[in-house]
Specification:
Layout: H1 2-12, E1 17-22, E2 28-33, H2 38-48, E3 53-65, E4 68-79
């Protein structure tokens, strides 16, 4: 049971990732996810888009593991040119 909790915790607290996708505008965008906090997501967005970005969507999911509450943030962005 402890191993499963550790794996789930590791997934929830993983490093922010940026996946290329098509933005609603039809241009290239990024899905920023696996963030340990909302701040981590916005830092990753700034890293991926150094000239700035347009935020198309954001979501926050809350989960509980062994009584601990974790929030996961996801952003859909499009880099400014």
């Amino acid at each position: 049971m402890k191993f499963i909790s550790f794996v789930l915790l590791s997934v929830l607290l993983g490093c922010a990732t940026a996946k290329k996708i098509m933005a609603p505008s039809g241009n290239e965008g990024y899905l920023i996810q696996d963030c340990s906090s909302a701040e981590a997501c916005y830092e990753k967005a700034a890293e991926v888009c150094p000239k700035g970005y347009k935020l198309h969507n954001n979501s926050n999911d809350v989960d509980s593991i062994n009584g601990q509450v974790y929030t996961s943030t996801t952003l859909l962005i499009e880099c400014k040119k």
